[in-house]
Specification:
The protein is α/β, with parallel strands linked by helices and 358 residues long. The protein is 32% helix and 26% strand. The protein has 3 domains: 109 residues, 3-Layer(aba) Sandwich (Rossmann fold), CATH 3.40.50.2300; 124 residues, Response regulator (Rossmann fold); 104 residues, Thrombin, subunit H (Beta Barrel). It has 11 helices and 17 strands. Strands 12-13-14-17-16-15 form a 6-stranded antiparallel beta barrel. The chain has a 5-stranded parallel beta sheet with strand order 2-1-3-4-5, covered by helices on one side.
Length: 358
């Protein structure tokens, strides 16, 4: 288990002890150069790194095919919405508190013991046209791990030209590079392209961008600041035909901190929502609950008041290496109970989210 970064002695001791409790041999390095050199010569079960100062290492490491599936856990204090948003933006798989040992042991024990196979490309070719290098690399890694072969465009000219390639299955483009998306899509369709197009834009521009897409089929706009895994969610919806133009499915992407525990248990774990519906929540985490009934506390969309809900676990997806994965590791729950006011607030927030999406 590679531990990267500078820590106080007591914190490093806790990380090393947790690694040993999970049957991992800890190896600590402080510089990016040391970390890359060690990874080159060793098989790592995972990477532990601080939320701050780890982006460079993770982006460089995950850009290599050999390490594209290396589990990455970000350590933060305190853990909040911004911690998850930041860590997911550069490729972490989960976020946990630096000061507690139990959450780390739980997650390390959940990691696969075998080395990951290289990703396969059975889902076709995808073009990633993003101006930001970190965002480009993170989206590409998510798509590769889901079975796409990935090409890049880094200039407006390349984005316009490459998007017309009829061999593409998917185009993910930021508005910095594709400034007139409806024209770009129509030009691609004229060349015989049947690719699904995902336009990534600032949240405040979502309604406007969706309106400008007009009657185009197989095209949508999404939050360009959200987790790269959200791109995979939208891509799966498009490829399955569940999301066309401005229409949305009942299940929509939404991210916020969620505290959860098995019903009747004493201690909470923390995760981050991935998508929600009127009656369900998908929680992104490596710490999957063993109980079939869970208690959850979180803020509904568009509201700042937390609610407490009871959910029944519908399915679990542990950290793994499937090329057909449609979601990151976590678990899905069906909302089955809660205080009447909390259930009403959840539905109200969900409906506001749908309305905001146009």
């Amino acid at each position: 288990m590679l531990i990267f970064g500078r820590y106080r002695e007591e914190d490093l001791g806790r990380l090393c002890h947790a690694s040993e409790q999970a049957a991992c041999v800890p190896r600590h390095v402080e510089s990016v150069e040391e970390a890359l050199a060690w990874l080159e010569d060793n098989e790592a079960r995972g990477l532990l790194c601080p939320l701050d100062d780890s982006e460079q290492l993770v982006v460089q490491t995950r850009s290599l095919a050999r390490f594209s599936r290396l589990p990455v856990l970000a350590l933060a204090e305190p853990v909040g919405d911004l911690s998850f948003v930041s860590a997911f933006s550069w490729g972490a798989d989960d976020v946990l508190p630096l000061s507690l040992e139990r959450p780390l042991v739980t997650r390390l024990r959940a990691l696969p013991k075998q080395a990951p196979p290289l990703p396969q490309d059975g889902r076709g070719a995808a073009l990633v046209a993003e101006a930001d290098r970190t965002r480009r690399a993170a989206v590409a890694r998510v798509l590769r791990n889901a079975g796409f072969s990935v090409r890049f465009a880094v200039s407006p000219e390349d984005a316009e030209t490459f998007a017309r390639d009829p061999s593409l299955s998917l185009v993910v483009a930021g508005t910095e590079l594709v400034q007139k998306p409806s024209l770009t899509v129509r030009a691609a369709r004229g060349e015989g392209s049947e690719a699904r197009f995902i336009l990534c834009c600032p949240p405040r521009a979502l309604k406007q961008e969706r309106a400008q897409l007009g009657d185009l089929v197989g095209v949508t706009a999404t939050d360009g600041f959200a987790s790269p895994e959200n791109v995979l969610f939208v891509a799966n919806e498009l490829l399955m035909g569940a999301r066309i133009n401005g229409r949305t499915s009942p299940r929509v992407a939404y991210g916020t901190l969620v505290a959860f525990r098995g019903a009747g248990r004493e201690l909470d774990e923390r995760g981050f929502t991935y998508n929600v519906s009127a009656n369900g929540i998908y929680v992104r985490t490596l710490a999957l609950p063993e109980d079939d009934e869970v208690w959850l506390e979180l803020c509904p969309p568009a509201l700042d008041r937390r609610v407490r809900l009871v959910g029944r676990v519908a399915w679990r997806r542990p950290f793994g290496y499937s090329d057909t994965a449609t979601v990151p590791p976590g678990f899905g729950v069906q909302i089955v109970d809660g205080a009447q006011r909390d259930l009403g607030l959840w539905l109200e927030g969900y409906e506001q989210l749908l309305a905001a999406m146009g």
